Task: inverse folding
């Protein structure tokens, strides 16, 4: 249908044309626009063709409605009227066509469209002829769909199916329809679907406690009656080095590893538009992603918290045991997503924007991103003391620094407290209802001396 209902009760629309269904209650009309919009980021020629199909369906649908109000059509069914319209259009030398139908539907409302015509430069401010401008617009939309569907060397620049032209066509037609249907809806480019993946609005993500870093977005799709969650990560050439490191780390851990890593997010699909304007790494998630925060933790049992901690530690172990090893360098609750799978909680390590690639073939560093984290008092509370004291983390043993940050994250999960100047680490650990072996390993992990901190495999072994 037109909406997807998420597990938390939130309802999201499929793309930017849901208002068409609101007004008309015609699912087929909505589907025509949805089918076009969802291939916008995949193939511009296919998009252009499908927009023309939507244009034609809209013309017939609205003309049928208009004629049904006339006395001579009172006894005719919708199917009869539609067949008559199509016959008129397809009759040789007929003056009836899709463009003229829509022009006729708008002829008494041309001034209503003035803001849209001016915005997209179908009419300049010195030209007061809205009637002529609406004709230009309606003709352009149809011609774009027709000419862009068959690219040739003689095609005019305005009809070339590229990102700029297709976006203008998509947004201006959307705005035309909002005026035609007297609907209040603003086009949102971040809500453009990709194939059958539906974008989740930023506000909905924030209501779930999700604040994704730049270049990432949550999409959902439906399969066998279930709502599936996915993270889309932009993979175009101009992404930042930290985004690039994030993607490369996941791919190396999965594709260049002797054994599959544990508790690491996984790429399940690569989506690329026909000309490379849009590229995405798609991470399929085992359920609705949850962030580690007080709201989640207050409702968890000790066993559930330990399960999460075990998963977090296994994720870090997968990085440290990779050959050559990766060091995360920004372990904190925000680096993980939590999922409830078959009544158990599972943690996945999902953020790698500060990761150190120790390979001799590493072509770049993400030092600047790490520097920002260290210098920011709001984000540096999980860093080991030697990281803060050093010259922005230079000459730090990152394997041991990761262990300290891992302990801080584990303690936050257990009792919502961190070791800092006002919290003695022994008191913080004593407040945790855990066995003595785990308390002792946490004490070692939080040692001021990095050399006294255990390796992550020993931490995982102690947790059991």
Result:
């Amino acid at each position: 249908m037109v909406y997807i209902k998420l597990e938390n009760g939130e309802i999201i629309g499929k793309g930017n044309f849901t208002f068409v269904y609101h007004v008309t209650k015609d699912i087929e009309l909505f589907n025509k626009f949805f089918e076009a919009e969802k291939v916008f980021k995949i193939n511009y020629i296919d998009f252009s063709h499908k927009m023309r199909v939507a244009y034609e369906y809209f013309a017939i649908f609205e003309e049928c409605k208009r004629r049904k109000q006339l006395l001579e059509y009172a006894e005719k069914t919708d199917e009869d009227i539609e067949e008559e319209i199509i016959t008129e259009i397809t009759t040789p030398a007929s003056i009836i066509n899709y463009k003229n139908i829509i022009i006729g539907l708008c002829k008494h409302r041309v001034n209503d469209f003035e803001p849209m015509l001016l915005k997209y430069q179908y009419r300049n401010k010195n030209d007061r002829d809205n009637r002529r401008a609406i004709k230009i617009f309606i003709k352009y939309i149809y011609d774009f769909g027709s000419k862009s569907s068959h690219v040739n060397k003689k095609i005019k620049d305005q009809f070339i199916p590229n990102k700029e032209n297709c976006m203008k066509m998509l947004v201006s037609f959307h705005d035309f329809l909002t005026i035609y249907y007297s609907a209040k809806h603003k086009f949102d480019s971040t809500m453009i679907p990709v194939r059958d993946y539906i974008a989740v609005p930023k506000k909905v993500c924030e209501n779930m406690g999700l604040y994704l870093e730049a270049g990432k977005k949550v999409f959902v799709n439906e399969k066998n009656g279930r709502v599936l969650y996915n993270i889309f990560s932009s993979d175009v050439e101009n992404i930042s080095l930290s985004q690039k490191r994030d993607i490369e780390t996941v791919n190396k851990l999965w594709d260049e590893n002797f054994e599959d890593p544990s508790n690491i997010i996984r790429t399940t699909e690569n989506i690329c538009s026909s000309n490379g304007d849009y590229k995405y790494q798609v991470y399929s998630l085992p359920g609705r992603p949850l962030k580690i925060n007080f709201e989640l933790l207050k409702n968890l049992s000790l066993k559930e918290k330990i399960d999460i901690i075990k998963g977090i530690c296994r994720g870090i172990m997968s990085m440290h045991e990779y050959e050559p090893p990766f060091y995360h360098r920004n372990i904190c609750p925000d680096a993980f997503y939590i999922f409830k799978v078959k009544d158990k909680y599972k943690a996945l390590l999902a953020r790698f924007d500060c990761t150190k690639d120790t390979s001799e073939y590493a072509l770049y560093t993400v030092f600047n991103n790490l520097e920002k984290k260290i210098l920011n008092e709001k984000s540096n509370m999980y860093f080991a003391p030697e990281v803060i004291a050093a010259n922005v983390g230079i000459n730090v043993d990152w394997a041991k620094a990761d262990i300290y940050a891992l302990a801080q994250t584990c303690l936050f999960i257990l009792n919502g407290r961190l070791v800092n100047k006002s919290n003695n680490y022994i008191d913080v650990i004593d407040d945790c209802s855990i066995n003595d072996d785990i308390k002792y390993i946490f004490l070692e992990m939080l040692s001021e001396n990095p050399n006294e901190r255990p390796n992550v495999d020993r931490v995982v072994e102690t947790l059991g």
About this structure: The first strand starts at residue 3 and ends at 5. DSSP finds 18 helices and eleven strands in the chain. The chain has a mean pLDDT of 90. Residues 44-68 form the longest helix (25 residues).
